[in-house]
């Protein structure tokens, strides 16, 4: 409490070099850093499943779905960017989190529903990233095994040790205090995402050029031939959930926007970053999905970089999978920081005099300098990483989990709340033309979310029916 008083006093006294208008440390983010954060958040494990998604949907429905989700994400993200300040998007009061923006724009019970949707989704994504990173690390070992023993060798590897390794890395990185210190990590992660996407595209082109491409069709896998009719329906709906997951980042948009300088206006800068990042992402998604599908056809694997055709050249596949792991190390931090801050801010507000919760202890780290250690932060964040790692070991079902996370978050976080806050903020009259088409958009996306979520739950049930916990094998 004392700190807040001092900050406010310095700002009022005219010292604006270190603090923003709200008394917090001056924000230094710009379009480039926000774009890096968004790309780190968006181009994640979702890109790996797009070839499989196109194999289920076919050329027409698959490409249309990718474009539609891209346009919806770009549009609703621009609406959400206006909600960072309220009631006025330029001069209004700052909202530091997505939930706070919903509370100040909509009020009532909606912000509680938003909190449940946002933070359960953030936890789900970190679990999904733990699974994906382990699969990629295991793929490196498998590629060497195939290289030395031939593609007929089993070369099966347990994923659990790699989930533990990923968890240990996250325990260390989780001690980064907040979002404002993640820019460097996001730059590295964004570069890694481009690298493995380019490698996947290159490998797909090489396989197609060699005449080893798979059989593709306008409608995807054929019901009654490749799969049963019910499997075709369920897999198609699950594919839609995977595409929704691939564009998921709205749940951290407000937190990313809170890193931007106050001038020029944050909403304008965030819209620029969103347009650039989602446009770049869409191009990569279209290339990875279409070329991956052309390379593998109806047999496209859930993770196209660990597919049967990509064990040679094994060293290039290794580089791609290393890039995936490095990228997900950074992406995990982007998605877990809001959860960390939620718990820590709530406890600091509730127990402001408790040294265990609020006291920072300076420690000298050789070659780095002074680092402030908070005992509660260290214990809480370490416990969170252990929790997500254990859950990942229990439920390591890749495509179904990604699809369910994407489907469950798409409507409430990407569409519903941005649309409702825009209607409230812009004071759009009920049953006017803009109100009607915004409601139609929201309703259509709700239907997509429900059917895709149902398909993913069905997929998880089927996959877990013959699975034993803690015995995940690649």
From TrEMBL:
GO MF annotation list: symporter activity
GO annotation (BP), single: auxin-activated signaling pathway
Keywords annotated in UniProt: Amino-acid transport, Auxin signaling pathway, Cell membrane, Membrane, Symport, Transmembrane, Transmembrane helix, Transport
Keyword Cell wall biogenesis/degradation in record: no
Domain Amino acid transporter transmembrane: 28-461
Entry-linked Pfam families: Aa_trans (PF01490)
Protein name: Amino acid permease 1
Species per Swiss-Prot/TrEMBL record: Morella rubra (Chinese bayberry)
């Amino acid at each position: 409490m004392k700190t807040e008083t001092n900050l406010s006093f310095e700002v009022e006294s005219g010292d604006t070099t270190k603090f923003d208008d709200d008394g917090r440390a001056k924000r230094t983010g710009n379009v480039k850093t926000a774009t890096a954060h968004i790309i780190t958040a968006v181009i994640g494990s979702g890109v790996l499943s797009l070839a499989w998604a196109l194999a289920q949907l076919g050329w027409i429905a698959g490409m249309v779905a990718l474009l539609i989700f891209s346009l919806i994400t770009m549009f609703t993200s621009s609406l959400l960017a206006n909600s960072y300040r309220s009631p006025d998007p330029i001069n209004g009061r700052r909202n530091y989190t997505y939930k706070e923006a919903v509370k100040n724009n909509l009020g009532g019970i909606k912000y509680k529903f938003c909190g449940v949707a946002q933070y359960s989704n953030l936890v789900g994504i970190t679990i999904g990233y733990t699974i994906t990173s382990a699969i990629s690390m295991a793929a490196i070992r498998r590629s060497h095994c195939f290289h030395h023993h031939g593609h007929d060798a089993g070369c099966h590897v347990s994923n659990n040790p790699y989930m533990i390794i990923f968890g240990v890395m996250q325990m260390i990185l989780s001690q980064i205090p907040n979002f404002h210190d993640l820019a460097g990590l996001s730059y590295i992660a964004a570069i890694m995402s481009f690298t493995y996407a380019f490698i996947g595209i290159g490998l797909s082109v090489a396989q197609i050029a060699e005449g080893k491409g798979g059989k593709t069709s306008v409608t995807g896998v054929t019901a009654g031939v490749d799969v049963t009719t019910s499997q075709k329906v369920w897999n198609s709906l699950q594919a839609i959930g995977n595409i929704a997951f691939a564009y998921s980042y709205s749940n951290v948009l407000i937190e990313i926007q809170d890193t931007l300088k106050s001038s020029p206006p944050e909403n304008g800068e965030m819209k620029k970053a969103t347009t650039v990042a989602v446009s770049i992402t869409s191009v990569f998604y279209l290339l990875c999905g279409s070329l991956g599908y052309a390379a593998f056809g109806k047999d496209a694997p859930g993770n196209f970089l660990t597919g049967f055709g990509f064990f040679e050249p094994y060293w290039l596949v290794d580089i791609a999978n290393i890039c995936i792991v490095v990228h997900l190390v950074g992406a995990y931090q982007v998605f877990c920081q809001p959860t960390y801050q939620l718990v820590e801010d709530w406890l600091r507000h509730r127990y402001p005099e408790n040294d265990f919760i609020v006291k920072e202890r300076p420690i000298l780290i050789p070659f780095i300098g002074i680092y402030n250690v908070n005992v509660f932060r260290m214990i809480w964040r370490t416990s969170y990483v252990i929790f997500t790692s254990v859950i990942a070991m229990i439920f390591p079902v890749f495509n179904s989990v990604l699809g369910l996370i994407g489907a469950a978050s798409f409507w409430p976080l990407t569409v519903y709340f941005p649309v409702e806050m825009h209607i409230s903020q812009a004071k759009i009259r009920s049953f006017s033309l803009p109100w009607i088409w915004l409601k139609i958009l929201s309703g259509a996306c709700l239907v997509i979310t429900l059917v895709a979520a149902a398909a993913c739950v069905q997929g998880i049930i089927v996959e877990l029916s013959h699975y034993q916990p803690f015995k995940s094998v690649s």
